[in-house]
## 1
Amino acid sequence: MEKVRGKEKPRLWLVLSATVAIAVVSIPLVYLVARGSELSAGQILQVLSRPRVGELALNTVGLSLAVSVTAVVLGTAIAGILTRVRLRYGKTLLLISALPLAVPSYLASYGWLVAVPGLQGFIPSYVLLTAVTVPYVTLPVAAALRGTSADGESVARTLGLGPIRAFASVTWPQVRPAAVAGGLLVFLYTLSDFGLVAMLRYETLTWGIQQAYAASFDRSQAAILALLLVVIALVVVIAERGARRQVRRTTATHISTEMISAPWRTVALALVALPPVVGVLIPLGGLGVRLVGAETIREVDLSRLALATGVTVGASALAAIVALIIALPLAALAARYSNRWVGVLETLGYLPHAVPGIVVGLSLVFFSLSVVPALYQTMVVLVFAYAVLFMPKALGTARSSIESVSPDLISVARTLGSSPLRAWARVTLPLALPGFGIGALLVAITTMKELPATLLLRPTGVNTLATELWSRTSAGEFGAAAPYAAVLVLVAAIPAMILSGVRSVAKEEM
Amino acid sequence: MHSFARAKTLSLVLVASFAVAGCAPSAEETPEVSPAPAPESSSEEVAVEPEADNYVIMYSGREESLVQPLIDIFTEQTGIDVDIRYAGTSELAAQILEEGTQSPASVFLSQDAGALGALADAGLFDTLPADITSRVDPAFTSQDGTWIGVTGRARVVAYDSEAVTESELPQSADEIVGPQWSGKVGVAPANASFQSFVTAYRVLKGEAAADQWVSGLVINDPQIFEKNSAILEAVNAGEVPLGLINHYYWYRMEAERGAENMRARLHFTEAGDPASIVNVAGAGILKAQSFDLDAYELVAFLVSDLAQEYFVATTFEYPLVPGIASPAGLPALADLAVADFDLSDLSTLADTQEILRKYGLIF
C-alpha cells in the first residue's frame, strides 16, 4: 500500500486532468487575489492591522480548532461504540447518529434560541457546531472500523490492556486517516460558517466579511479577510497531510462486538445520543414551539413546495456528480503518487471550502459574466458553484478509498494483460465505489442546505428549499417557513441515513 | 476605472482558470415583444432606443411576502411581467457592483439608502425623470435624482414591558448611554439603520459629541447583535431590556405572534432626537437596462398612491408621498428627527464608520 515515490512517474493525462480540476476550483481564490490586489500594500496592511481583525481571527481559529478536535475525539468514540459494543438497536443508532448532518446550522441555532433565549458566545457556538458536524467524523470512522478487523484489539486485550488502551494502540492508527480527514472537513466547515455564529453572536472572520459588504460595500476589504481564512485553511490542510501517515489495514473477516456492563452501556448510549439530541431534537423542538404559536400558518402552497423540493434534489444530485468528477483525478493522483506537485494540487483542492458562500457566489457572478454571459443565472452556473464549494467533501473519502485498494491487486490485473485504465475500471473502481458514494452524498447533503451562493446565482424566480426558508424567516414568518424547514430536513436526512450504512471499502471478494 | 479593474481581474482569472466548455446554454426566458411607442418622459436621456417589452427584472432587497402582492397588482394593471430576485440588500448591492454594466436587472429595490448610494457612486444608476422624483418629499429622496425614497422607517427604542416601566424610559439618545442601562441595551452596529442614526447624531450634535456618545455606549457594555430582528426577539424574550431597532419590526412580529404575546413595546424618544431618526427604503433604475421603459413604469408605480397606501397598511411604514396618511398610532413624520444630510452619502457614512471602528463596534 506504500505510495509510489520517485520511481514511477504519474501518467501525464492524470496530472493534466488533476491540474485542470484544480484550475476550476481555484476560480474563487484567483478572484480573491485579484479583488484584494486592487488595494495597495499599505491599504492591505491597514486593513489587517485593525485590532478587530486580530480578535476576529483568533475567535475563528479558536472556535474551529475546538470544534474539530472535539469532533474527532467524540466522533471516534461514538463510532467505536457503534461498531464494537453490542447494543440493542445498533443499526438504528447508527442511522440516528447521521441525522445532525441534515439540519442546516442556521436552523439549529434558531431552534435553540427559541428553546433557550439569550444563548450567545463561544460555548453555545462550540457545542452546537460540534453537534452538527460530528457525523463528518463518526460516519467515516464507523465505516473504516466495519472494514477493519478487531482481532488485533482482542490480542491486545488478552495481553492485559484495557479496552480503551487497546483501541488506542491497535485500532486508532488504522482509523486515524479517516478521523483526521473528517476533522479537516469539520475545521473548514466551521471556518466558513456564518449563519450559526451570527445567530449565536460569536464574532468570527465571516462576520467581518459580511460587514465589509453590508456596511461599506467594500469588496476589496472583504477579499482580504476571505484570503485570511484561506491562509488559515492552508496551514491546517498542510498539517493534516502531515498527520495522515499510512498504515496497513488488516481487513475484517468478521466483526465481533463486545458486551459491556450496564452502567457503562448507559454512558455509551448517552455519548451516542448527545449529537442528535443537541443538533436535531432540541432545535426542531424549538421550531415546533414557534410553529404552534405562529399566526402565519397559511394553507401550504403544495405546488410551490414540490417545485422547490424538485429543484433542490435535482441541483444537489447534479452537484454531487460534478463534484465527484472534479475530485476523481485529484484523488487518484494523491492516493497513488507522492511528489511536491501532487501535494500542491491536493492542498489547493481543499481551500475553496474555507471561503464563505457569498464570496464564492460573487466570484462566479464575475467569472460567468466575463466568460460565459449566456449561462449567468442559469442552473449550469449554480450547479458549478456548488461543485466548486463542496468538492473537498468528496476529495478526502475518494482518496482514502482508492488508497485502500491494494496495488497488488492492480499488479495482478496488469500482469494478466489489462491496460492501466482497464485495470482501474475493473479493480479500483468497484472496490473504491462506496467511498466515492460517501463523498457524493456529503456533497449532495451540503448542497441542499446551501444559501448565500444560491441567492446570488440561481435563475431569477427559481427557488430551492433553503431560499424559500430564508425568504420566510427573514420576513419573520416562522409559521409559513415551517413546511419548508421540515421538508429540507427530511430530504437531507435521506442521503444522511444512506451514508451511515456505507462501508468505506467494498469487500475484496474475488 | 471600473472597466479597467474588471479587465485586470478577468485576465488574472483567465490565466489561472479555464472556461467550462460543453455546457449548452439554457433557453433565454426573456419574452421578446416588439417595442411599443415610447412614453413622453425620460427618453431624451437614454442613448439606446428606448423600448417597452412588457418585461422587467427587479432585484429586491425587501422580502417576497411584502413585495410580491404589490407587484402582482402592478402586473395586473399594466400587463408588465416582473421577475424578481429576492436576497439581502447588501448582497444584492455587491452582486450589482460585480455585474456592472452587464446586470440583467432594471430596477433595484433597496432596504436602505446606503446601498443605493453605493450604486449611485459607482455610476450604475440612471437619473430618474422629474415626474417620478417630484412625487416624494425631497427630504427623503436622493439629491441628484439617482434613486427615489419609497417608504420611511423610524428608529425606535424597543423595551421589555415586564422589566422597564414607562417612566424609566430614556427620552433621548444621551440617556440611553446612562449608567442605569449598563449591559442592558441591544444594538446592531453593522446595520445600515443603526449607522444612519449615528450619522444623524454627528450631523445634529457634532463630531466630538458623537464620538463621546459611541464611547459611552461601548463603556456601557452593549449587547451586540447582527440584525434588528434578532434584537427584537431578545427584547421580547426578556433577555435584553432595551433595543435600538426600526419601528416596523415590531408590527411584523405582532402580526406573527399575536398582540397578547408582545412583551416588547415601542418607545419614541423626544421630538427631534437623533434616536428617532427616519430612514428610507428606496429604488433606482440601473443604467445597464435604462432603455427599458417598463422599468420607469415600475418605479413610478412604487410611489403611486396605491403602493404608498399598501405599504402603510401592510408594513406600518411612513408614506413619503405628501397627502397619504401615516399609520395610525405613530408620531407624525414631522415630529421625528429629519437630519439635514443625504442618507445615501457614503462619505459621511464612512466618517460614522470610522468612529464605530475606533471603538471596536464594527470591524
Note: Residues 2-16 of chain B form the longest helix (15 residues).
## 2
Amino acid sequence: MRVGVFICHCGTNIGGYLDVPQLARYALSLPNVVFSQDNLYTCSEAGLTAIKKAIAENKLNRVVVASCTPRTHESLFRSTCREAGLNPYLFQFVNIRDQCSWVHMQERERANEKAKALIRMGVARAVLLEPEEEIEVEVNPWALVIGGGIAGMTCALSLANRGFEVKLVEKESRLGGTLNSLYKLYPTHEEASRLVQARTEEVKKNQKIEVLTSSKVKEVRGFIGNYDVTVRQGEKDRLFKAGVIVVATGAETFKPMGIYGYDGKTVVTQLELEQMLKEGRLDADTVVMIQCVGSRDEKRVYCSKVCCPTALKNAMLIKEANPNAQIFVLYRDIVTQGTTYEDYYRKAREVGITFLKYSLERPPVVGNESVKVYDELLGEELTLPYDLVVLSTPMVANPDARDLAQILKVPVDENGFFLEAHVKLRPIDFATDGIYLCGCAHWPTNVGESLSEAYGAASRASIPLSAGHVTTEPIIAVVDEDQCSGCSLCELTCPFKAIQVEATPKGRKAKVIAASCKGCGACGAGCPEKAITMRHFTDEQILAQVIPLAEVIS
Amino acid sequence: MTVQESFEPDILGFLCNWCSYASADLAGVSRLQYPPNLRIIRVMCSARVDPTIVFEAFIRGVDGVMVLGCHLGTCHYMTGNYYTERRMKTTKRVLKRVGLSPERLLVDWVSAAEGERFATLIREFTEKVRKLGPLGNETKLEPQKLKTRLASAKETLTQQRIRWLVGRERELVEDKNVFGEKVSQEEFDQLMLQTIEKEFAKRRILLSIKEDALSVKEIAQRVEASPREVLGNLVSLERDGLVSVVGIEGKSPKYRVAGG
C-alpha cells in the first residue's frame, strides 16, 4: 500500500490557523503513507500537477487530500487521480477547513490535534478503498420547467431553442407570473405587459414547448436523466418523463397586515400602487413611501433589494405625470447597487423627490392624515401630511416552495427560498444532479437578473441533455448471496425499488438493480444477516475512521 | 477545577452528505465557532449508520456519538431518516440497558441551510457529554466490565430478531401485520424491550463462555443474573446449537460456546 497525503494551506484559510507543515510531517509518520506534501492551494493548477507528479514518481496507489470540502472539490481531485492513471475511487477527502480551521479559530492547538486525527482517519479509510467503475445512465432529452413567470418562460424558450422538448408547468391559469401585476419596469420604464405578452407569444408559438397551466407538480420520482413526473392539471393527472428539472416558481410580495395602518386604500403596498398607476386611478398630490417594511428586521433579516429601485421608479413616474406632486421616501439605507442604479437614484433626487432617513429603533408613525417621522440626519421629528402612504415590502418565498422542495428533495434556506448547491461555485444548481433553479424562487431578483439566471439554468440543464448520458457514482449495494436469507426486509426498506428478492438455484435471494440504486445504504444497515455491503461505504471503511482521539494524541 | 469541568469529551458525528454535512460546511463558511471535540465521518445517508457502528464507537472509547440527517420528509433518499429514527431509538434503548445514558447518542435533523443551528447543536451536545463525564462515568463499572457489556450490546444489535423488529416497526405500527392487525406503539415498545432484554442476556452468556467452560452458577455470577434465568437461556442457546456441554464438574455441567 502506498498512500500519498496532500495538505492544503488554502492560502491562509487553513495555513493561518493550523500548522500545515507539521501536519504533513505527521501524515508521513502514519502507516502506509509513503509521501506527504503541503501545498499553498492544492486545487490550483500547480497543486494538481504536484499530485499527478507524486502519483507517478512515488507509485502512489491511494491519494488523500486534506483541504476544504468534498461537496465542492471531490470531483476535481478524483479527475486528477484519473488523469494520473489512478482509479478515482482510490481518492479520500479530509475536511480540515470548513470543519476545522474555520470553526476553531480561537483554539489553534486543539484544532491542530483534531486535524491530525482527521488526517489519520482519512488515511485509515483510504487504505481500505477499492477501485470502482462508474455507472453510465441515459438522459431523456426532455426538460421540466416549473413556473411560467418571466424566468420559467425564458428558460423554457432557451432550452427549446437548443432543440429539447420542454414541459412548462404553471399553477395559475395564464403565463406571466408576477410581471402580470407590474406597471413599468425600472430602469428603462418599459411596460411590463409588453415584455410578458411578447414572451408568452414566443412560448406559445414554440413547437417544442408544451404549456400546462392551472397545473401543479404532484410527484417526482427517479434521478438525473430519468425523472417520472406526475402533474395535477385540474381534475386529472398527467404523467411524463423528464431528464432535467428547472425550478422557476418565483416569489410573493409580503402583505403588511397590521403594519403602518395598512388598509389597501390610503395605505397601500408598492405592488398595489403599480396597479393604481396601470389603471390610471392614482389621485394623490402628497405621497409618503416607507422603505424596509417587514424586511431587515428581526423577523426577516434579509434585504429584498428590488424595493429601493421600485420606489424610485414609482416616485419618478408619479412626478412625471404630476409635476406638482410631493413625494417623500422614508428610508433606512438606499440600496441601488451598480452603475445604472446609482445614477437612477441621483436622477430621482434631481427631479425633486425628498429622501428622509429613519432608524429601525425609531420607525415612522402613520396617523390618519399625516406621517410622523424622526429624521436621523436632521435630528428632529417631522410631520408629513399625506394623500397616500406606500409601503415597500420585501419579496417573500412562495408558500408552495416548501411542498415542492419536499417533492424534489432539495433544500430551502431559513427564509423559505430555494437553496443552491454553493453560493459561488454552483449558484444555479441544486446539490442534487439534474435539478436547477432561477429567478425569484432563489432570492429576490429584478427582471434582468431573473433572465440571466434563466439563461444560466437553461445552459446548465442542457449539458446532460446534449450529452445524452451521465455517469453516476458507483456507490451501490451488493448482496452476498451466501449470507442472504431472502427475508425481503431490504426490498421493503428501499425507497427506489432497487432491490428485489428473486428465486435462484440457492433459494430466494435479494438482487440489486444497479441503475436504480442510489447508494443510501438503508438496506445494508438494517439487513438481519448483514449480507449487504455498500460499495465505497463499507462497514470496514466506516469503522476504520472510528479512532478515539486519545489514540491520536498518545 | 473538578474532573468533569476539565474533561474534554471525545465525540464522533456521522453526518449525511446532503443536509447535515452541508450544514457543517455552512457553519465553517460562516466562521461560526464551536468546540473542537467533534470529529465528523461523512456517510451518504444517516440510514447508512448501522446501530452496531454506534456501539463499536463506544467500545473503542468515544464519549458521545451524533447521528445527524436531513429533516424528516426532506431526506435526499426519501425515507432514509425514518429508518435512522427507529434504529437509533432502539440503539438508545440498548445503551440504557448497558447502563449508559442514552443521551450519549444524539440523533437530530439539520438542513443544509442551518449552519447556525448545527453550531448550536455541537455546543450543547459537547456540554451535555462533558457533564455526563467520561464514558462509563454513570455506570461505575470497571473499564473491562463495561467493555464486555458493550460488546454484548453490539452483538445484541446484530441479532436477526432485533433487526427484523426494527426494520418492520413502521409497518407494524402504522400499517397492519400479515393478519390484518395493527400493533399499537405501546405493544410494540413492550415487545421490543422484552426482546432486547432476552437477546442481551443471551449475548452476555455467550461472551462469558467464549474462552472458559463454566457452570450455570459461575455464568450467573459473571452476567449478574439468577441461575434460573441463565439456565433457561442456556437451554435455548443449546437448542440453537450455539453452546454445548463440554464436561461435568461434580454435579454441575460446564458450558462453552459451541465449536469454541
Note: The longest helix of chain A spans residues 108-128.
## 3
Amino acid sequence: MTIEIKTSTMKPIRNTYAHIERRFGDKPATRYQEATYDVHSTHNFHYKPLWDQDREINDPARTAVVMGDWYDLKDPRQFYYGPYVQNRSKMQENAENNFKFFEKRGLGESLNSSLREKIIELVIPMRHAEVAANLNNMYGTAHGTGTAVTQALIFEAMDRFGNAQYFSKIGLALDGNTGDSLATAKEHWMSNPAWQGVRAYCEKTLTIKDWFEAFIAQDIVLDTLINDLYYRQFDEWLTQNNGRDLLLLMEFMQDRAKDSQRWSDSVLKVVVTESEHNSNQVLAWISTWRIRAQEALEPLASALLGDKALADAFAVLEKRLTKVGLNC
Amino acid sequence: MSRVQIAFQDNDESRYIVAAIEQDNTTAVVHYEPAMIRVENEGSLIINRDTVSEQIGMEWDVQSLHINLITLTGHIDEDDDYFKIMWNN
Amino acid sequence: MSPKKLNLKDKYKLLTRDLDWEFSYEDRKEAFPYEEFEGIKITDWDKWEDPFRLTMESYWKYQAEKEKKLYAIYDAFAQNNGQTNVTDARYVNAIKLFLTGVSPGEHAAHLGFAFTGRQMGGIGARVAAQMQSIDELRHIQTQIHAMSHYNKFFDGFDEFNHMHDRLWYLSVPKSFFEDARTAGPFEFMIAIGFSFEYVLTNLLFVPFMSGAAYNGDMATVTFGFSAQSDEARHMTLGLEIIKFLLEQHEDNLPIVQKWLDKWLWRGDDDGLHAAAEGHVLARSLGTLLRRCCRCSVQRPGALRHQNARLHRYYQARKRTPQSSGMVDFLSVHSCCCIPHLDTHCRRDGLAQRKVS
C-alpha cells in the first residue's frame, strides 16, 4: 500500500541572499556561507581612522599579501560562531572532567616533587606566551580582510586565551589552589634564562604592523615549534617519566592545536599558491622569524627535553612548509 | 533611589529563578510581557543559589542564568552562591 | 592536604589577572601605540573591576547552550513556514530595517571591539572587550540566519550589506558605527560600550523584540532575546569603562563628558529605530522617544554618582515627551543628510584630533 501525505508547499521566491547567489548560484546556501561571505563592509566609508589616517577603516592594504578574493580563505572546519562554541564546549566538558578527576584522586599530591618543579618552571609560564598569541590573532581580527579569515582569527584568539587559563589551572592543580605556582611561574617567565628568548620573541611579535606577518610569526613559526616540543615530544617524555597523569590536563591544548592546524595550513596554502608575490613575501617573513625562533627556543627546548629537541621540532616545521609548497 | 531590573526569557527554567527572586526580595515587582519576565526593585536585587536550587529541586549553577537572561540594569556583584545587582548611590 | 576551596572571584583573579607582564625587550608603547593620543590618563589598570567573571570555559559552555536552543527554533521556524504567522505581512518591513540597518552595525562593533580588545593595556578590560567582539560576531551571524528564511519569501533582505553601504537612511547607523570605529580605543568604548550598549540597547532591542513577539515573529524574538543576554554583559562592560575612566584621573572627566554629549546625541537621534518601532510595527509598544525619556529619568544612577551630568539633550527631551514616532522620523530626516559632526573636524575626510 502506498502512503500519500497531502502537503501544501510554499515556493520560495529566492534561495538565498543575492551576494551568496552571485558566488554560488541560485540554490540554498549553507549556514557557513551565509554567515561568512561578503559580510565585511567595503564601500563609502564615512571617516578615516584617527589611528591610521593613511588607510580606510577596512583596508586590504593593511598587509603586504595580495588576494584577488580574500574569501578564498574558506575555513576547512567551516566554523562560524555556532559550531565553534559548540565544538569548544564539548572539549571543555572533557577538560573539566579531567581536572575534576585529577583533583578528586589527589593526583597532584602523588606527583613527584622534581616533576612538579619542572612543570612549574617550564610549562606553567606558557600561560604568558598564550597571552601574546591571543593578542596577535586579535590583531588580525581587527585589521584583516574578509570574514572568512577574520572570524577564524578571533576563534584562534579566544582559544589561546582559553589555553592561558588552562595552563593557569594546571598550576592551581599542582599547588592546591593557593596560586603560589602561578607567582613562581611568573618569576620564571620574567627572569629564568630558559624563557627570556621566548619572552623577547613574544614582545617583538606584538610590535608587528602587518597582520599577516603576525599570523606567520605566531601561528605558523612559533606555534609549530612549541606545539611539537610540548604536545608531541614532551608528551612522550611525560609518558616515560611517570607524568602520565599530567597528560589529562594537557589534552585540551593538544586537541585544540591539531584542530587549529587544519585551518592555519589551509590559510598558508591558499595565500602562497595565489601568486609568486605572496609566496615570496611569506618566505621572507618565515626566514626572518625562524631565525629569531631558533635563537629564542634554544634554551627552553634544551631545559625541557635536551639538545636534540629543537632540531626535531624544526624538522616538523620544514615538513609543514614543504607540504604547502614553501621550500626554505 | 534608582531602580534595578533584570529580565528573563519567559520559559520553564526562568520560572524558578523568578520565584526565588520574589522570595528573597519582597518588594520586587514582576512584569509579564510578551516572551519576557521582567523584575524590578528599588536599589538592589539578589538571586541566591540556594533559593533557586530549592525551587528547582536540584543544584543550580549561578552562572547558568546567562542562558535565559535577557538584560539587566545596575552594577553586578557575583560569586559562587549569589548574583546581585545594585546601584551604589 | 586537600586543595583550598576557591570562590568565583578568587578563581577568576588567578586565572586572568597577572597574565600580562612588564616588557623588557621591546617598548610596550610600540605594542600598545594608541593608549595615549586621546588624552585619557590611566594610572593603574589593576583598579579595573571585571564586570562579569566568565572564564573562557564558562563562555564556551553557556554560549553553546544558547546556540543549540536558538538554532533549534530557527529550524522549526523554517520547517513550519513561521513567516505565515505574523500579524500582518507589512510587519516584515520592520525587520528589513533591522537586517539592513542594525546587522552591519553588529559587524562593525565586532571589529571595533576586536580593535580595543587588542589595543588596551589592561588585561581585564581586554578580555571583556574581546568577549564582546566575539559576541557581536554571534549577533550578525544569528541575525543573518534568522532573516535567511524571510529572505526566501520577501523582497528587501537579499542585498542587506550592499544597501547598508549606499542607502541614505541607512547612512545614519553606518555613520554612527564608522565614527566610533575610527575613534581611539577609549572613545570607542564610551561610544559603543556605554552610550550605545548601556543606554540605548535596552530601549531599542528589548521593546523591539517584545514588539516582534506581539506581532507573531518568533524568529526575531528568539535571536533578539538570546542576543540580549550577551548585551547584559556588554552593558556591564560599558558601565565599568565609564566608572573606571572617571576614577582613574580627574583629567579624564572633561574628555569623557564631551564624548557622552556627542554620543548620546548621535544615538538618540537615530530615526531609523524610531521608524522601526514607532511607525512600522503593526502593533506598537510606544515610541522610542517616550521610552528614552522614561528611562533616562528613572535610571540616571549610572551617571549621577560619577559626577557626569545627564546629557543636556536628554534634559531638553524630558520637557517634550509627547511626540509620535512619525514626528521623530521626520525630524531626523533632515539630520540624516548631515552624518558628519564637527567635533573631529572631519568634513573633508581628514581626521584631526582636537582634545580640549
Note: The two ends of chain A are 69 Å apart (CA to CA).
